Amino acid sequence: MAGSYRISGQGRLTPAKTARFTFDGKSMTGLAGDTVASALLANGVHLVGRSFKYHRPRGILSAGAEEPNALVTVSRDAARKTPNVRATVQELYDGLTVASQNRWPSLSFDVGAVNDIASPMFSAGFYYKTFMWPKAAWHKFYEPNIRAAAGLGVAPDQPDPDHYSALYAHCEVLVLGGGAAGLAAALAAAETGVRVIICDEQAEFGGALRYEKGAVIDGQDGWSWAQDVVAKLAAMDNVTVLSRTTAFGYYAQNFVGLVERVTDHLARPGRDEPRERLWQVRAKRVVIATGAIERHMVFANNDRPGVMLASAARTFLNHYGVVVGRQIGVYTANDSAYAAAIDLKKAGVGVAAVVDLRDNPSGPLVDEARALGIEVNHGRAVTSVNGSQRIKSMTVQAKGGGAERTIAVDALLMSAGWTPSVHMFSQSRGKVAFDDATKRFLPGTYAQDCVSVGACNGFDSLEDTVAQALEAGANAARDAGAKSSKGVTLKVEASEGWTGGMLGSGPGAGAGTTVKAFVDFQNDVTAKDIRQAVHEGMRSIEHVKRFTTNGMATDQGKTSNMHGLAIAAEALNKDIPAVGLTTFRAPYTPVTFGAIVNHARHGLFDPTRKTPTHSWAESHGAVFEDVGQWKRAWYFPRAGEDMHQAVDRECVTVRKSAGLFDASTLGKIEVVGPDAARFMELLYTNPWEKLEVGRCRYGIMLREDGFIYDDGVVGRLAQDRFHVTTTTGGAARVMNHMEDYLQTEFPDLDVWLTSVSEQWAVIAVQGPNSRDIIEPLVEGIDMSDEAMPHMSVREGMICGVPTRLFRMSFTGDRGFEVNVPADYGRAVWEALWAEGQKHGACAYGTEAMHVLRAEKGYIIVGQDTDGTVTPNDAGLDWAVGKKKTDFVGIRGMTRPDLVAKGRKQLVGLKTKDPRTVLEEGAQIVENPKQAIPMKMIGHVTSSYWSANCDRSIAMGLVLGGRDRIGETLYVPMPDGVIEVEVTGTVFFDEKGDRLNG
Amino acid sequence: MAKVAIATRQPAHAGKSLGGHGVSLKVLEPASRMSLRARPAAVAALSKAIGVTLPEKPKSSAVKAGRTVLWLGPDEWLVIDEAGGDPIGDCASVKGLHSAVDVSHRNVGIAVIGPNAADTINAGCPQDLSLAAFPVGAASRTVLGKVEMVLLRTGEDAFRLECWRSFSDYVWGFLSEAARDG
After folding, report:
1. Per UniProt, what is one GO molecular function of this protein (chain B) (predicted)?
2. How many domains does chain A have?
3. For chain B, how far is it from start to end, CA to CA, in angstroms?
């Protein structure tokens, strides 16, 4: 037997299939199919962790996803380490390493446990009261120390080597939960032929049938029936069966997030298997079959290892074949715990006593327990347990007080009743309603196309559950469009019906007591804390929750919320519905970042865009810079050159001979239609109607508010066809902006927009020799100055392929931009490069491009403008059509603030010392001797060393800048004040002769 | 001019292919592509000119003699010619209101084929790709992960995916990752 607490003949695991694992370094053996929790219990281990705040020893409370206590760190290797894993969920595999958390130096001897003794200091709200003064100490002292002392596992310190996958899926019926209700609903829906997805968080389907012994469905015991149904569903083409899959979030329009744990249970996962797979499911109908969660009893020291939910003990016995003790006690306010006592008794475990808070428990389970000779103490309570790292006994007292009796037990099983799991329903924005008869919240008003079935809908008997689920499944399929309806019937021949339960604190932990009766185990919240919150003025359950942190741990209060609410209601002397219920939020259980991120890691984090000539630039030593998603050649250093030297050489070469520059990233939009010119008139400040075919114009686009939005050169290819260029960064948004206006403001225009940004590779050839380089390769275009003046565009052939050849300049020198279809970009570039070599031309990158344009005072939208700059501010009044009566931004431009004096204007800045290069973004002041904070009158927008000017050059936005030309201003920097002269923005070839040079 | 070497077409990822779990990926041969916009009155004349009846049903396509026309919007079609034709030239004489723009080099076509083709695409595409919702011939402009794509179902287990040239690195990488997941 793998573990001495494993009982032969009990459970469903195979004794021969063992799996070795370690717990805090100690080697242990479990069975395939075990969870870490069942394997530890099989080895007699109850103490598995220390609590968050008080460092109290903690054991295993549950056998499922609601577990608040048994949080461990599991690891496969050094990099594959996951903290805060619920031991009741993690499946065992051979070689698994498990470590306890929040203890030092060891689990059994933990220095931090001093917090338990000092606990009066750490009562509810202590955060807000104790650590307020001195203020500065919070960041430096209190917070780091509290963080170090509290908390749970430690985050892994290595990159996650696993990969994660994702899948969007659609179905007619999505069933959340694979217990009897979910399976019955899925079966009924599936038989109609519609697409069904059913998921369950457990390794195997069956839900409560995992531990219930009494159920008989269609002549089979419940568990076997469930497995048969799953096999049947899995074999159907229209059904997707997902085990180990948690529905964690229910979003708008039946969009449900599921996370499937693919390899966490495997000793040797396949290389291509993702660790987890995120399913994003859009379902026409959702059937919520999420069951119910058992509540614990609230009494002193109810958190001691050995104290657990009755259903958990039953699960460990009936599914895993593990007994949780040799001599157990049961403390209940509910029938279902009797079943645990009966099962354990029959398995040979000593049952010392059942302590039932109710005065007259009755029914078949109670009778059977009595018949088996189990002592039933009714009208009594367990007021405490003794033993720290494992309980030794329970103290029993009559409800009203009186003599205490100590009964030796090594495990105590408790049940305060069952809380319907309305998490998914509530996440769907459905409103819960309080059922006063059964003291529980149930689905009330639905907000989406979903239905709750079974225990989560308040159904207590299996027979009713299955009947309702069958009907709901068939209805969901029908409402989702199922054509056929094949009736499914299931006969429930026997089941366990549970009634009863209580909410709030039990005897001995009521008002006026100071015992540690835990409500929320994971966040160490006691009944006393909740009363204290009320005492200190919290009235809303939302305030009580935040003050005490009740229900705010990663378990989201699955076991604690109802108790907390009842205690607060009692203290407030209000009914439970009047106090309200806190909101259920996604995720239902913690979800890894890996699952959320899935494929979007490394190279897939964001697209990296490369131009058609990228590989050429790479092989010619280019250093690249990121411009949005694009990789652009920044500069092309030759052997021995640093960036500065390379850029200087490129700038000088372009003006001396010529340079080739990859401008492919520019946005390009083809504007086509009889109203193309009218549309351009409306979108740009410039006039377009009279632009001749074959000519180009520099255009400025404004937003409605009158500020510059984008700019670029536009060529008219035909009366009804424009080739518009945008900035690289503006490509997508300018297209959207234009399309937006076209569709909403100017739908009467006959014009269409097509993005051709990626149709054309653009090779800028700039410099005095540019024409000589291009001309030999061109066919059908007269490139003489007379035939093709500056700012013109021609269509023809280059290297035997079509080109749109623009004569335009972003350097101030004679220049061209060769547009060729993208797949020809590299070949044409190489042909131009070969020609260029004959003239001593160079390839230049974005840095030289920036310097060259700054030498001419050409702006870059987004660098010299920031969304608050008008054409006038930028000195571009000439580009605004004076006779125009309408364009986007024309009214915005005349707003009082935009025409007032004293606006910031773009000017040139020359440092008094020509060697000093200003920093972009540096602030400009009038008087450097004024007291700090100084009055800042502007800032530097562009600044470079210009080899062509043999000095530094800069532009800046300065208050009333153009009136200050000739003045001296100051740029205060950390290591001294820099004197600058305000100048015009053109630093090189002021007359512009070189455009034709 | 005669001395000048004719530029050769160098498409992105030319000839690339990859096999995954139940799916294979292949970068398709270069094609001629046209973005066609038109007013309803021009549809008949354009259909005649290009030799394929422009589909008018949302998310549908039509194919004839190596030329596929994908409906992308109420007045928008993507024409893909794999037979060496010149769809732009074919439209030149049509008088009705329309816009024909050459986007041959803008896109890269990738074939995704195999029993897991739909799941591979669904790793990043939120559309319902069941045969009922997205039958053979269905076409849609949609997304894959973080980029836009045009998707065409060419067979029960076969899709043609078109993305912009500079996004083809990302799309190929995304599909390759997704193809690992059987």
Report:
1. sarcosine oxidase activity
2. 5
3. 54
From residue B133, alpha-carbon distances to A890, A971, A981, B60 in Å are 47, 64, 68, 11
In A203-269, where does DSSP find H-type helix? Answer: 222-234
Residue A432 and residue A288 share a domain = yes
Q: Torsion angle of alpha carbons A728, A730, A731, A736, nearest 10°? A: 180
Indicate yes or no: CB of A827 within 8 angstroms of CB of B99.
Answer: no
pLDDT of A151 reads 63
Residues A489, A514, single domain; the answer is: no
Is A383 domain-assigned? Answer: no
Determine phi and psi for B40, rounding to 5 degrees.
-55, -35
> Testing the interface with B: which of A162, A164, A168 to mutate, by most B Cβ within 10 A?
A168
- Ranges of chain A with pLDDT below 70: 1-2, 120-122, 125-135, 138, 141-151
d(CA A517, CA A876): 75
A611 to chain B: which residues are within 8 Å by CB?
166
Residue A496 confidence (pLDDT): 78
Domain span holding position A51: 18-122
Q: Which residue of A has its CA nearest to B76?
A: A752
Residues A680 and A729 occupy one common structural domain: yes
ipTM: 0.97
pLDDT score recorded for residue B1 = 45
Q: Which residue ranges make up each domain of chain B? A: 16-30+105-182, 32-103
Per this entry, what is the length of chain B? 182
| Per-residue tokens: A573 | 């002397």
CA distances B173 to A162, A603, B126, B144, Å, are 17, 8, 18, 11
Residue A444 in any domain: the answer is yes
Nearest CA in chain A to B127: A168
The CATH architecture that domain B16-30+105-182 belongs to is: 2-Layer Sandwich (3.30)
Q: Of A494, A519, A548, which one is at a domain's C-terminal end?
A: A494
Residues of A in contact with B7 (CB under 8 A): 798-801, 820, 824, 827-828, 831
Interface probe for A, chosen from B29, B76, B101 (most Cβ of A below 10 Å), is B101
Contact criterion met (CB < 8 Å) for B104 and A820: no
According to the model, what pLDDT value does residue B157 have? 98
Q: Is residue A909 part of a domain?
A: yes
A394 in a structural domain: no
Residue B50 per-residue DSSP state: H
pLDDT for res A714: 98
Q: Are residues A191 and A275 in the same domain?
A: yes
Give Cβ neighbours of residue A492 (< 8 Å, ≥ 6 apart). A215, A216, A217, A462, A463, A466, A467
pLDDT at A149: 62
pTM of structure: 0.94
Q: Do A821 and B105 touch (CB under 8 A)?
A: yes
Q: Examine the domain organization and report whether A730 and A869 are in the same domain.
A: no
Which DSSP state fits A995?
Answer: G
At the topology level of CATH, where does B32-103 sit?
A: Alpha-Beta Plaits (3.30.70)
A800 CB contacts (<8 Å, ≥6 apart)?
A: A779, B4, B6, B7
CATH number of the domain within which A742 lies: 3.30.70.1400
Q: Is B92 on the interface with A (CB under 8 A)?
A: no
Q: Which of these three, A88, A122, A156, is where a domain ends?
A: A122
pLDDT tens across the length of chain B (182 residues): 446 678 888 988 888 999 888 999 999 999 999 999 999 999 999 999 999 999 999 999 999 999 999 999 999 999 999 999 999 999 999 999 999 999 999 999 999 999 999 999 999 999 999 999 999 999 999 999 999 999 999 999 999 999 999 999 999 999 999 999 86
Question: Which amino acid is residue A468, in one-letter code?
Answer: Q
A612 contacts on B by Cβ (under 8 Å)? 10, 12, 165
- For A391-449, the DSSP string reads --EEEEEETT----EEEE-SEEEEE--EEE--HHHHHTTPEEEEETTTTEEEEEE--SS
State whether A864 and A987 are in the same domain: yes
